[in-house]
Every structure is written in structure tokens, then in C-alpha cells.
Amino acid sequence: MTQCATSCDVFGKLGLRKDGVEGLATALDFFHKYSHPIRLTIAAITSFSVEGLCVGASYDDGKVGEYEKEVSGRVTLGSVFSNFIAAVKTNVDEMEAIVL
Fold this sequence. Notes:
Elements: H1 3-7, H2 10-14, H3 18-32, H4 39-45, H5 64-99
Helix pairs in contact: 3-5
């Protein structure tokens, strides 16, 4: 999260919950790691249950625990989106009221 986002009152001004913004920043940091050739991306194509590499979509019994963490993280991330949608709607409505 940027210095301004943590030190300014941008949350209140935009109608956003600070915990929601922090959740998105955490998710950005986590998923950003998948866009670079590091151990996480190598592990994504490596099978933990059979010998060999997987190219494309695959299911690996050896990664069930990691799949569960991934789904949980995405559900948690999804839970903050409604706050952002509501804040954007409020801001658009306010802008329309000013323009009209």
C-alpha cells in the first residue's frame, strides 16, 4: 500500500473501508508473484502426486491443501468487492448531482 493511502484520509473521502483496501493490497502482492518466473510459478506446473510436469489446466491430489488456501483467499478477496462497488456508485451519483 502506498504511503499516501496509509497516511491520508483517502478511505473516508472515497467512502472505502480501510480493511478492504488493505485486503486488495495484500491480494495484489500475493498474485503479483505468479506473474514472474519464481518458485511459485514453477510449482504451479510441477506435479506433487505424479512424476512429470503439467502444462495447462490440471488437478493434482498433492496440492489439495494449497487449492483450499487459494479458494479461501479468493473468497475473502471477493468479500471486499461490494464495498468498492458501493463506493464507486456513491461517487458517481455525487458527480452526476454536481453536473446536473
